[in-house]
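Hi team, as promised in this morning's meeting, here are the two structures we talked about. I've kept the exact order from the run log so nobody has to guess. The first one is mostly here for context; it's the second one we should focus on when we meet again. Sequence first, then the predicted structure tokens.
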Amino acid sequence: GNARYVSNPELCSIDLAEQRQDVVAHQAPWASIISCADSRVPPELIFGGHGIGELFVSRNAGNLVDTATLGTVEYGAAVLGAPLIVVLAHTNCGAVAAACDVVTKNATFPGAIGPMIHPILPAAIAVEGEAGNFTDNAAKESARRTAGNLAGRSALLGDLVKSGKLKIVAAIYDLKTGEVAYLN
């Protein structure tokens, strides 16, 4: 779907009324997406203009996993049967940039922003000094770490992965090109 979005970015023509009727009684998304809340990263569009009921999406700044997000993706996988979880980072992420500023400039942020970005700090520290864009490198590393830790944080997800019913991957969305690249 992302290749279609990149090559033919016109808004897909879909019959939302018909789709709405199709999913009234049941949903069966093909993937759960943990995405950043950034308004420039709409998963339903960047994965091919999907309509109603195709993606089970949880969004927050920095595409992090708290209790609510973990419960959301557990529900998507265990109850709805979504066979894929994508932890979707993106280039030029403000939450990740803030974490990078904490690492390099000892920056502080008001309210709940500081505690919110705290889980990104280890990823930023791990890639500090690597070639390339620090923020984008940290976003990739944070997504990899989040995806890599999901099965360990949740016995429910771990069992689904072990049984071959669930795959968990990390990816990054490029704001300039619109492309999603999957990360190792």
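And here is the second protein, the one for discussion:
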Amino acid sequence: ITETDLKDLGIPLGDRKRILAAIKSQEPAVPQSTLPTWVRPRSLPAAPADRRQLTVMFCDMVGSVGLSQSMDPETLRDLMRAYQEECASVVEKYDGHVAQFLGDGMMIYFGWPQAHEDDAERAVRAALDIVNTVKKVSAPAPLHVRIGIATGTVVVGETTDSDVGASK
């Protein structure tokens, strides 16, 4: 997702910069091939850029800082993995795509790589399902999430330096 994509979704400049910085700083700690398949990001198709409707969902765990201060690191890691697996399972059920894990947050696409006429509705249904599902994750207290959803037209696909120069 690019700054233009976030701008087209109506995200203010400061928030766009923070989101892009967070995305850029999230380098995998281990080789992609060793990650479970539900964690591995799907790469963009090597095809011309495609204009499409995309629904983006951001999901963030409430109170994760407090948990990190009160839990053993390995126990916290297991809790975060269970949380991510449960969320990813729900997203998969609605044919969404987990684009990126951002600490205790997730960026999820509905409408890429597979588009559906009801992607925005799928995102809302997934969000409601996630709210209920994360409460069942074994934790010191029931987990809660905050979720934001935005839908808009984006350009998805491979961009090159020549594409950037052509748009000026």
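Starting points for discussion:
Confidence is low (pLDDT under 50) at residues 163-168.
The CA atoms of residues 87 and 124 lie 13 Å apart.
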